[in-house]
Amino acid sequence: MSEPLELTLPSVDVRAVRRHLGAALGKLVRDLQRLPLRGDAAEMSDARAVLGVLGPLSRGQPGLVWSALRRPSIYVHLRLAADAMPGAADHLRVGLATLAAELGASAALETPLRLERPPSRLIVRSRREVATLDPALPLTIGRDGSLSQGGRACETAVAFEPLSPSIALALVDDNPLSSYEAHPDKAGSELDLGGAAPARWVASLRDALARIERYLPLHRQELEVVLSEIVPVGTDDERHLSASYREALGVIYVSLHPDPLTMTEAVVHEAQHNKLNAVLTVDPLLENDPTERYRSPVRPDPRPLLGVLLAVHAFVPVALLYAAMHEAADPLVGSERVRERMRQIVRINQEGLELLEAHARPSSSGRELLGELRALHGQGVRRLAALSGAA
After folding, report:
1. Spans of all domains in the chain
2. In Å, how far are 40, 57, 90, 91 from 43, measured between CA atoms?
3. How far, in whole angstroms, is CA 182 from its chain's centroid?
4. Tens of pLDDT along 40-70?
5. Cα atoms found within 13 Å of the Cα of residue 94, Cβ hemisphere only
6. For 198-236, what is each residue's pLDDT tens digit?
7. For the residues of 283-338, what is the DSSP string, one character each?
8. Angle between helices 336-359 and 364-383 (to 10 degrees)
9. Cβ–Cβ contacts within 10 Å for residue 5, how many?
């Protein structure tokens, strides 16, 4: 008997999300193994050197290797290289160099590793550092994870502020997709503190994580598995912006907003996208033609049906979060403005599910996911029934 999908919310523990993430990482490893190493001789020599270390480690310490591959600065570059995207050779160079640095920081290198063509910087997540490099000089990664060029230690700076044991606020970001934007009301997701001190961001995001822990405790446990970095994208008192990218697992982009509920919604919403993005690397979920367009319950522009699925999958847990807060008489949900927001989310989920049920051609996993969404949406409607008009 196959294990339950549990892609929307966990019922008992977080094994399901670990399985989904493991499947995405496994596909990345398989795709990299098939990747032809072509290009600059020195760069290809570097790639072979890192892959030569990676092979034995994958057999002897697979958990260590997979933990490193989950780092956003590694995964996104290696995913783009494996998908033969423009600049694939550069992505491979950055991804493998960063992987080597992470393995060094984990004391996994038996001997120092020398890279002839390093990138201009390396983000070493486990050390919360970014190292500035000279691409013209060979880089030596020591057994202790030290980074040196020309016999001198590389200059480093703080790159992250911790939010929890596994999640950090990013002060640097090298996701090459962050300038890409598919939403008509946005212009990319470049890192921007918006003039706010990191401490203000940390306080707001920790508050959101604490609220999720109180009202969706198993989902909060999932966040420690799914998320690694939260990237700031400016401040705005009027509207909130957030984003995630399928090729950049483990990272979400959010703006700073004064409303604590808006910040909490954003973390839940974008983490859900990360979960679905992991599965979409190995299963399409919907077999509809991606050129088909439908009216979205949340976007002004017509969307492919997968976009509707992403929206419903993100908002169903938000509705359950509000239901739990309402049941606990949390003062944050006492205003009519928030009650209307609850009703709006329920309508979004209802309209989205009706659209999916009318037009979706799901895969086997997609059918199971739609069943999860229907059941959890119904639960949310029942729990919010005390609010006039919520159902």
Report:
1. 35-158, 168-383
2. 5, 21, 9, 11
3. 17
4. 777 789 999 998 888 888 888 888 888 999 9
5. 28
6. 999 999 999 999 999 999 999 999 999 999 999 999 999
7. --SB-S-TT--B--SS-SS-B-HHHHHHHHHHHHHHHHHHHHHHHTT-GGG-SHHH
8. 150
9. 19
